[in-house]
């Protein structure tokens, strides 16, 4: 299933969209001088993809915390927590798929790098069962992946650079899609920038930055000089998720705004008294406020509990149990019917499943990744209604097998129950998610060792499989 994010319009006024699924696989680099519209672009992407994918924003200036009220992002004020607590929060949000804004406002440069390194490392080191797709947006990426040494301690710089490198180089297989924005390509580490396959280049003036942009875009230096003429909010776009040829895109409007904006000229005040008296007047008597204007610090335990708490709509679905099961069954049919779904990982298909359920009117599916993986195995075997009574015993027997073998077992069980010919090795391989017939033979041998299958090959070389505990037997058929 393709989810397109509307980013704006090109020079002719035609809409320019970004393929969200392709973006998850190929990553994005945004570059532009201060004031070119980078943060506006990131905000547009985040707003238009909210609800479609988990979002994690590393925000050095606290500009993206306004996403919380409109889209439900959890705001983590990094200055209020220890490094160990930050790592725990990162691990917990991967488990519960919460969208988060990590605000680093209030920390010095070294503290921001130390915090970002711990946070990104914890995201990267999450256990395999929590490798859900997520957009990881890093604003001002040159702070966390500098091209050279700076004024921070060397161990902090290396830790931050290593975490950013892991995000961009190895994060894809863990479901982490890096979206990084920088003011200057020359200040960003080359091995971090080079891993992105999609580029949105905004206005820049320095020759060294235009040279780096030309190298990344595969353009001649003279062509790259057009970047100098880009208007604020316009970007040169290239990449498999947006366009195969360079196009100019004007980023569309956003619904939320940053806490800080560009400075505007305002009239100077007219002093009603002598300015020297105002400047050198003695301090006023202190006043006492009974209400503390400083926001309450949220303890780490409370924040972790908020991350793990289910959403209100998940606790109170607006459909009956039978209607929910019908939606699940239809969505599973649609996923299995998609030819591309056969080669995709369950974590990726789980994201597709949730989007399809919301489109079908189900506020939020109550299934977790483990339940979805089992249902997916059943669906690939042709069993969409897992609540059917006639399959209860077969499903009970299958609990003795690993989840990834459930589909192969049920495919054979379905043929045996209906007296149909025994599925071929190729059919079992497709259900098992492999192209190796050798793995299929080892799979059947493993299930036989658990005394769930009894395989018989007749003199004509045709195979039949019996499930003795159910009394079901397939017809004889060629295994090849």
Automatic annotation (TrEMBL):
Record keywords: ATP-binding, Nucleotide-binding
Domain named Helicase HerA central: residues: 10-74
Cited SUPFAM superfamilies: P-loop containing nucleoside triphosphate hydrolases
Domain of life: Bacteria
GO MF entries: ATP binding
InterPro entries: ATPase_Atu1862_pred, HerA-like, HerA_central, P-loop_NTPase
Protein name, UniProt field: ATP-binding protein
């Amino acid at each position: 299933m393709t989810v397109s994010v509307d980013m704006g319009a090109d020079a002719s006024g035609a809409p320019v969209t970004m393929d969200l699924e392709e973006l998850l696989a190929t990553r994005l680099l945004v570059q532009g001088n201060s004031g070119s519209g980078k943060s506006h672009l990131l905000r547009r992407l985040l707003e238009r993809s909210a609800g479609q994918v988990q979002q994690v924003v590393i925000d050095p200036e606290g500009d993206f915390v306004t996403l919380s009220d409109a889209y439900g992002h959890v705001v983590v004020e990094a200055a209020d927590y220890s490094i160990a607590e930050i790592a725990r929060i990162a691990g917990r949000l991967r488990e519960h798929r919460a969208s988060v804004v990590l605000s680093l406002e209030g920390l010095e440069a070294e503290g921001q790098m130390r915090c970002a390194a711990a946070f990104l490392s914890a995201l990267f080191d999450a256990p395999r069962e929590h490798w859900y797709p997520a957009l990881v947006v890093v604003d001002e990426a040159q702070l966390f992946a500098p091209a050279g040494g700076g004024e921070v301690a060397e161990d902090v710089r290396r830790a931050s650079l290593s975490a950013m490198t892991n995000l961009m180089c190895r994060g894809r297989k863990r479901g982490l899609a890096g979206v990084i924005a920088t003011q200057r390509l020359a200040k960003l580490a080359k091995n971090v920038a080079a891993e992105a396959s999609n580029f949105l280049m905004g206005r820049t003036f320095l020759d060294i930055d235009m040279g780096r942009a030309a190298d990344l875009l595969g353009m001649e230096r003279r062509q790259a000089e057009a970047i100098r003429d880009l208007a604020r909010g316009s970007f040169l776009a290239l990449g498999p998720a947006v366009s195969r040829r360079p196009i100019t895109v004007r980023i569309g409007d956003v619904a939320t705004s940053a806490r800080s904006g560009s400075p505007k000229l305002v009239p100077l005040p007219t002093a009603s008294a002598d300015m020297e008296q105002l400047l050198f007047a003695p301090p006023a008597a202190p006043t006492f406020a009974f209400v503390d204007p400083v926001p309450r610090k949220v303890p780490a335990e409370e924040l972790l509990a908020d991350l793990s708490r289910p959403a209100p709509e998940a606790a109170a679905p607006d459909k009956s149990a039978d209607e929910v099961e019908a939606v699940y069954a239809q969505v599973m049919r649609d996923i299995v019917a998609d030819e591309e779904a056969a080669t995709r990982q369950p974590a990726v298909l789980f994201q597709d499943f949730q989007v399809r359920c919301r489109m079908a009117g189900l506020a939020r599916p109550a299934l977790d990744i483990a339940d979805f993986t089992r249902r997916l195995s059943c669906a690939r075997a042709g069993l969409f209604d897992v609540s059917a009574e006639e399959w209860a015993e077969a499903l009970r027997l299958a609990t003795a097998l690993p989840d990834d073998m459930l589909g192969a077992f049920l495919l054979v069980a379905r043929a045996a129950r209906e007296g149909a010919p025994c599925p071929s090795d190729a059919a079992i391989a497709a259900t098992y998610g492999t192209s190796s017939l050798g793995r299929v033979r080892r799979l059947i041998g493993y299930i036989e060792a658990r005394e769930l299958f009894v395989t018989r090959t007749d003199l004509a070389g045709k195979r039949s499989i019996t499930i003795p505990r159910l009394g079901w037997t397939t017809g004889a058929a060629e295994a090849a």
